[in-house]
From TrEMBL:
InterPro entries named among the record's database cross-references: Acyl-CoA_DH_C, Acyl-CoA_Oxase/DH_mid-dom, Acyl-CoA_Oxase/DH_mid-dom_sf, AcylCo_DH-like_C, AcylCoA_DH/ox_N, AcylCoA_DH/ox_N_sf, AcylCoA_DH/oxidase_NM_dom_sf
Name assigned to this protein: Dibenzothiophene monooxygenase
UniProt keyword Flavoprotein, yes or no: yes
Catalysed reaction, written as an equation: dibenzothiophene + FMNH2 + O2 = dibenzothiophene 5-oxide + FMN + H2O + H(+); dibenzothiophene 5-oxide + FMNH2 + O2 = dibenzothiophene 5,5-dioxide + FMN + H2O + H(+); dibenzothiophene + 2 FMNH2 + 2 O2 = dibenzothiophene 5,5-dioxide + 2 FMN + 2 H2O + 2 H(+)
Main location: cytoplasm
Protein family: Belongs to the DszC flavin monooxygenase family.
A UniProt-annotated Pfam family: Acyl-CoA_dh_M
Native source organism of the sequence: Pararhizobium capsulatum DSM 1112
Principal EC category: oxidoreductase
Length: 410
């Protein structure tokens, strides 16, 4: 079966089905246990390990470097399929794919060669950037890398360290002695590194988005790069991973509600048919949910094309053209965010209108769709995106490329 036969639309590229074929059996196995894992808070270590062994982490790497050579539209289409199986797994790998994208954009042959080899053999990267507490400012990290006795050491604490518990490496945001923002790649099993699963959100509960602490972690100079040197469409890329995840949740909602309606035998005296599967009002609800999932996937892939153009512009030799491509990628992703979030949040509530009160029972696990979608939609608040889009439309104001969260100086 292909995306076309499921009526999800044409896939990006004639080779897409061949690209994703090795992973679809793994996605199917991941989907079978998704509800149970959520109910029991069973972290998906085994699922991520299977994906690592299958080379999933290298899907964006060039084929000659041991990867699958996926374009960005193909990559995001694959993420939608994975998210249909379990959105937690996609989010747990989000930092890895963002780091990989940065390596693909790097103009350092040494850095590219080092990380291509690591990623191709299955190593994955987690994230440690966000900070909480009074010291978490907008302009400087409280986590620092400082020199002591001629050596560099990393100290600090991070929260929302999504995926780091599953990772081989952690991508850490810090400040150096000059106050510059830097990115540091450290081994998760290095001395002084501790990662714990203390994420207490009601959604995306299996992403291990908890706390990481770094106590006198030894750092080599080649592990440190200046933050400003990272790929410029990074904010759009990370946001679009969330939107692909939401689109996948939309497909999962569609699957669950369609199956439940088909199997449902109980009905009401004032229903429009003797079974829900023949009730035109119920079918209308299911159709509305499926349409939302379809539209979300189409929007994500349209925005992915803008990221592909930004990626290509990076190597075209025109800084001006690259700047324009980056701005457009950010704007298209912002426009996609405001619509896709609404569509899937609406679908995650509508599904209960197609079913009875028994659908709210915890073992059914249908609440996880709203909890997961609501959690994802709370990242990088939508309310700011409408203003940014409107400011561009009215005044031609370019969007901000990178944004942080923390306490303001005031």
């Amino acid at each position: 079966m292909t995306q076309l036969t499921y009526a999800w639309g044409a896939t990006p590229g004639e080779d897409y089905d061949a690209l994703v074929a090795p992973f679809r059996p793994i996605f199917a196995e991941i989907a079978k246990e998704a509800t149970r894992r959520d109910h029991e808070r069973d972290l998906p270590h085994a699922a991520i390990q299977r994906l690592k062994e299958a080379g999933f982490g290298a899907v964006r790497l060039p084929r000659e470097q041991g990867g699958r050579g996926a374009s960005l539209p193909q990559f995001f289409s694959v993420l939608i399929e994975l998210s249909e199986a379990d959105s937690n797994v996609t989010q747990a790998l989000r930092a890895h794919f963002g780091f990989t994208e940065d390596i693909l954009n790097s103009k350092s042959p040494e850095r590219r060669a080092t990380w291509f080899e690591r990623i191709a053999r299955g190593e994955i990267v987690g994230s440690a950037w966000s900070e909480v507490g009074a010291g978490a400012g907008l302009d400087r990290f409280s986590t620092e890398v400082m020199e002591k006795d001629g050596k560099l050491f990393l100290n600090g604490a991070k929260y929302y360290t999504t995926g780091s518990l599953f990772a081989d490496w952690i991508d850490v945001g810090a400040s150096n002695s000059a106050g510059e923002g830097v990115a540091i790649a450290v081994r998760r099993d290095a001395d002084g590194v501790e990662v714990i699963d203390d994420w207490d959100g009601f959604g995306q509960v299996l992403t291990a988005s908890g706390t990481a602490t770094f106590r006198d972690v030894a750092v080599l100079p080649d592990q440190v790069i200046v933050d400003d040197e990272r790929f410029k469409y990074g904010a759009a890329f990370y946001q679009l991973v969330h939107l692909a995840t939401l689109a996948g949740i939309g497909r999962a909602i569609t699957n669950d509600v369609a199956r439940a309606v088909a199997e449902r035998k109980r009905t009401y005296t004032h229903a429009a048919a003797s079974r829900s599967s023949q009730d035109p009002q119920v079918l209308q609800v299911v159709g509305r949910i499926r349409a939302a999932a379809y539209a979300s996937g189409a929007i994500v892939l349209q925005a992915a094309n803008s990221l592909e153009r930004a990626f290509e512009a990076h190597f075209a030799g025109s800084p001006e053209a690259e700047e324009v491509a980056n701005a457009l990628a950010e704007l298209e992703t912002a426009q996609a965010q405001t619509v896709v979030s609404d569509l899937i949040l609406d679908a995650s509530t509508l599904l209960f209108d197609a079913l009875g009160a028994s659908a709210t029972k915890k073992p059914a696990g249908l609440d996880r769709h709203w909890r997961n979608a609501r959690t994802l939609a709370s990242h990088n608040p939508r309310i700011y995106k409408h203003r940014i889009i409107g400011d561009f439309a009215v005044n031609g104001t370019p969007p901000p490329y990178q944004w942080r969260i923390g306490a303001s100086a005031g």
